[in-house]
Write a structure and sequence with these properties.
The protein is α/β, with parallel strands linked by helices and about 425 residues long. The protein has 12 helices and 18 strands. The strands form 6 sheets. A 5-stranded mixed beta barrel has the order 14-15-16-18-17.
Length: about 425
């Protein structure tokens, strides 16, 4: 989501005649797009302060702008170093706002933020890739998980109009994009309406996938991230029948213990989560599964953590994004004592990482000597290329052919690692334009 928003910032500014400076010392403005989901992300912005101060000493006219996902506490702390602190929602007016002499770094933050909700998503991005595109379909969240700042920084769920999304996908496909990521803090909760011939039809996420899947052209559809609570049988069946929706799914569990899940305000049990995974794997047999998990949530005992470790061994994830709990201001969990020592959090993170390494390696063994479809994303060096499978596995292969970027190819897997595959090029796929 942050990468996508940065692309929209660049797209908007360049549409207004702004140009990217070759180096900070020659810039008029320096933009920092921030994330507050974890303290480590906030700390990275603090880490930029000395660099910004140094640049400002050399470039007196430089104005520093902070935007993105910003908590009230951080707005106050950063106001000393940034000339503007702007909500991303006001992006359509930045060409006017940034012309004004800086007075208050809180300019417009609370007064007009709500008036612009969702409008910035209409801005055409400056895509950083010519192969893969990030496409936000909604913003905000209504779940109020006890550890999460999203409802406070992004506000309530707002879904983009379906016609707007379909148009953007069609434009991307015409430009030759081969992979489209549908983004949202809770994509499975997408909801919009479609008006056609005087009739209004409600469009949920499953129907949106069908509509995008029906767009002509050879391309893959990926999405992230759904809440297990909203993952319906209808959605599973839709994914199974839509050939452009890839067999990769990020399904955040966050913890393996029901009591901790309840404290997190996650509205499912581990039993329900495992049943959901079972349904998904039955309907979509080749699904590669990743998850998000937090270790060291307030009050999490070693016994409760062991349930998370047990879940990892049982589910056998292909990928996992493991985070050590960090207190986030404004959230309900912030009032709880952060009583799991940092060293214990690190130990738990290491335990899960080691389990993941073993299960991912075991999962990857099934690819050995198999031929897989790969979307080529990168030329590494000399005759080495890198791409992804439909199941989001990274594949490295060798070829003396040129101009393979953005091509679908067939690779025979000769070697497997925990988080990667390598093989030999068999052939370049012939794209079926009617697909």
């Amino acid at each position: 989501m942050n990468k996508s928003l940065s692309e929209r910032i660049a797209g908007f500014l360049e549409s207004k005649g702004w140009k990217k400076a070759k180096e900070p010392n020659k810039a008029d403005f320096l933009f920092v797009n921030m994330c507050s989901v974890r303290q480590s992300a906030v700390d990275r912005v603090y880490g930029l302060i000395p660099k910004i101060k140094k640049i400002k000493l050399k470039n007196q006219k430089l104005k520093a702008v902070l935007t993105g996902c910003i908590l009230l506490k951080d707005r106050k702390n950063f106001s000393e170093w940034f000339d503007f602190i702007l909500p991303i929602e006001t992006l359509p007016k930045w060409d006017l706002i940034l012309k004004r002499k800086p007075k208050d770094p809180f300019l417009y933050f609370d007064t007009v933020k709500k008036n612009y909700a969702g409008n910035y998503l209409k801005i055409t991005p400056k895509y950083t890739s010519k192969i893969s595109a990030f496409l936000p379909i909604m913003t905000g969240c209504n779940n109020f998980c006890s550890y999460c700042v999203i409802p406070y920084t992004r506000g309530p769920e707002i879904s983009r109009p379906v016609n707007e999304i379909i148009k953007e996908v069609k434009d991307l496909v015409k430009k030759g994009y081969k992979e489209i990521w549908l983004l949202g803090q809770n994509v499975a909760n997408y909801s919009s309406t479609l008006k056609k011939q005087g009739k209004t039809t409600k469009i949920d996420f499953a129907r949106l996938l069908e509509l995008i899947n029906n767009i002509p052209g050879k391309f893959w559809i990926r999405f992230t991230s759904p809440n297990p609570e909203n993952f319906s049988d209808k959605l599973i069946n839709t994914i199974a029948k839509c050939e452009k929706v890839t067999e990769y799914l990020n399904l955040p569990v966050q913890a393996g213990d029901d009591e901790i899940l309840k404290k997190m305000n996650r509205k499912y049990t581990i039993s329900q989560y495992k049943q959901l995974v079972k349904k998904i794997r039955k309907k979509i047999p080749n699904t590669s599964l990743s998850t998000d998990v937090i270790v060291g949530f307030p009050g999490e005992t070693k016994k409760q953590f062991e349930k998370t470790a047990k879940l990892f061994r049982e589910i056998k994830y292909d990928l996992a994004y493991i985070a050590k709990y960090s207190p986030r201001p404004q959230t309900s969990a912030f009032r709880l004592e952060d009583n799991v020592p940092e060293e214990e959090k690190k130990r738990r993170e290491k335990v899960l990482t080691e389990i993941l390494r073993k299960t991912a390696f075991s999962n990857n063994k099934k690819y050995l000597q198999k031929e897989v479809e790969v979307l080529v994303e990168k030329h590494i060096e000399n005759n080495k290329w890198q791409g992804k499978t439909r199941t989001f596995k990274t594949v490295v292969f060798e070829s003396n052919l040129k101009d393979l970027l953005g091509k679908f190819v067939i690779v025979k897997i000769k070697k497997v690692l925990p988080f990667g595959l390598s093989g030999e090029l068999i052939k370049i796929c012939t794209e079926n334009k009617k697909n």
